[in-house]
Specification:
Blueprint (H helix, E strand, L loop, with lengths): L10 H23 L16 H24 L9 H11 L4 H20 L3 H4 L2 E3 L5 E3 L2 H16 L11 H17 L6 E4 L17 E4 L1 H8 L8 E2 L13
Helix pairs in contact: 1-4, 1-6, 2-3, 2-4, 2-6, 7-8
Length: about 250
């Protein structure tokens, strides 16, 4: 019997799904290599252990599955009943035995992937509501999952690096960060990327301003609140703290 494939005929969406699945494989690789006792160690997210990261990523897959099911059925199914309920669920799942926690991560990802696979092109355009209250087409769940798995693979502090991310992913993350700053009416810092060029092929010129300079990987790490390694302040002072992203 031939394997079932995605129903979408949209090449851009197919490419986005591939990047999300690559991110899931990247996350799963580092989780698989961690010993059970190493899950108790702190993650790179303040206040969260690696257990919290695994629980959050698994439960995020379940939440996005609810949105995908909403798009398929037309029956409104929120990601979470409330922010407090989301936080309680993560804290509780983080206490699961290591085997159960790993199963949560794996099985939730598989379920989401099946729901994505079976969604037709019309349903991908159905509007759903994110946990932040934004109305977005169901296809946005693919990006929401992509950034979760790639970034939280790094947050496991088990060897993941922003330098491993494909260039289009880094660019999309920076676009996402800038959009979030704009929604909050935050004065955006200038981001100078040293390994990118202008449209006419010239090197991006550094200039004195409020902001940072570095490679795309380093600037994305800083902009997403993961530290200042590899970036410098444009005005020559200490590297500022990035505005809040999510």
């Amino acid at each position: 019997m031939a394997a079932r494939t995605d129903r979408t005929d949209d090449p851009a969406l197919a490419g986005a799904l591939l990047l999300a699945r690559r991110g899931q494989a990247y996350f799963s690789r580092f989780l698989r290599d961690l010993r059970d006792e190493e899950l108790d160690a702190p993650s790179l997210v303040p206040g969260w252990s690696r257990r919290h990261i695994v629980a959050h990523v698994g439960l995020n897959a379940r939440a996005l599955t609810r949105l995908t099911a909403w798009a398929a059925s037309g029956v409104e199914t929120p990601m979470y009943s409330s922010p407090a309920a989301r936080d309680r669920e993560i804290d509780l799942a983080a206490t699961l035995p290591a085997t159960a926690l790993r199963h949560l991560s794996d099985h939730a990802a598989i379920h989401l992937n099946v729901e994505w696979r079976d969604l037709d092109d019309a349903s991908w355009g159905t509007e759903v509501v994110t946990a932040q209250g934004r109305r977005v087409p169901a296809r946005e769940t693919v990006w929401m999952r992509t950034r979760e798995v790639w970034i939280h693979a790094i947050d496991l502090d088990a060897g993941g690096r922003f330098e491993d991310m494909p260039a289009p992913l880094l660019d999309r993350l920076l676009d996402d960060v800038r959009a979030a700053w704009s929604r909050r009416r935050t004065l955006p810092p200038t981001l100078v990327i040293t390994d990118r060029k202008l449209d006419d092929g010239r090197d991006v010129p550094p200039h004195m301003d409020a902001g940072v300079v570095g490679t795309a990987a380093a600037v994305t790490r800083w902009a997403t609140g993961r530290g200042a390694a590899g970036v410098s302040a444009l005005d020559g002072t200490a590297v500022p703290t990035a505005p809040v992203w999510l």
